[in-house]
Design a protein that fits this description.
Blueprint: E1 5-8, E2 11-13, E3 23-25, H1 28-36, E4 40-43, H2 50-59, E5 62-65, H3 89-104, E6 109-112, H4 114-122, E7 127-128, H5 131-135, E8 152-156, H6 161-166, E9 170-173, E10 180-181, E11 189-193, E12 199-203, E13 210-213, H7 227-239
Parallel strand pairs: 1-4, 1-5, 5-6, 6-13
Antiparallel strand pairs: 2-3, 7-10, 8-9, 8-11, 11-12, 12-13
Helix pairs in contact: 2-3, 3-4
């Protein structure tokens, strides 16, 4: 059987040579997660033309929106605060358009960290520009020292894609984010929450497969259970090819 082709968004980097020339960059952990689960990664540049985006989404079998920069608060109707870190308007415009098009074409989609936040914004939700500042939580979410291990539990909702994958009530996950969902977008369903109530997982009922997590399963390759998230996504991409 043919392997499904998965569109993966990427970020910008500043190269050592010709630093004035922007370069696209994708994390190896993202492409490895798709390849290891049985898919073919396709790294997509920031197309601006709506028809080109529509055609590109039509060409692939699934979409992966990964982690990365903060989303510009104007995308969800807020003024930017100092706590909101570097934003990339070109990436925001591209990813929000791709997410809307993938939903319109009913393509299977998985979203991680920024991807979860972008999914929420694309559908009309809003974000905490900084979780600690906005909520005063005592759960330390931006724990960048523990990318490949867990640092807090999340509780899974029983009637959800995540619970169907793992078959248990809680997961011990990593946490590498300082933003998160504030107002849940219409249509989205919460599938996982942190001990402080912050949303850590959502899905979009009524579509073939749209699932998102705030934590990063792709950073935990040594933890076999977490690759199940990508394996489940790829199996659903195959189902609808």
């Amino acid at each position: 059987m043919k392997k499904p082709v998965i569109l993966i968004s990427c970020g910008y980097e500043t190269p050592r040579v010709l630093p004035q020339v922007k370069s696209y960059a994708a994390r190896e952990s993202n492409t490895n997660a798709i390849e290891d689960a049985g898919g073919i990664p396709f790294i997509a540049p920031y197309w601006k033309d709506a028809e080109a985006i529509k055609q590109m989404v039509a060409m692939v079998d699934g979409v992966f929106m990964p982690g990365g920069d903060d989303i510009e608060p104007s995308e969800y109707g807020e003024q930017k605060r100092v706590e909101c870190q570097g934003t990339v308007p070109e990436r925001d415009a591209f990813e929000l358009a791709v997410i809307k098009e993938a939903i319109a074409q009913d393509k299977p989609m998985i979203c991680i960290c920024r991807g979860l936040q972008a999914l929420n914004v694309a559908l009309g939700g809003s974000l905490y520009q900084d979780i600690t500042f906005n909520t005063g939580t005592d759960v330390f979410h931006p724990d960048y020292t523990t990318a490949d291990v867990g640092c807090h539990d999340v509780t899974l909702e029983k009637d959800s894609i995540l619970y169907g994958i793992f078959g248990k009530d809680t997961l011990f996950v990593n946490s590498l984010h300082h933003q998160g969902i504030k107002d849940l977008a219409p249509g989205l369903k919460v599938t996982a929450t942190a001990p402080d109530g912050l949303i850590e997982g959502v899905e979009l009922p009524g579509k073939k497969y749209v699932s998102a997590t705030q934590f990063h399963p792709e950073f935990m390759p040594g933890k076999e259970q977490y690759i199940k998230i990508f394996a489940d996504f790829i199996e659903n991409c195959k189902k609808y090819m």
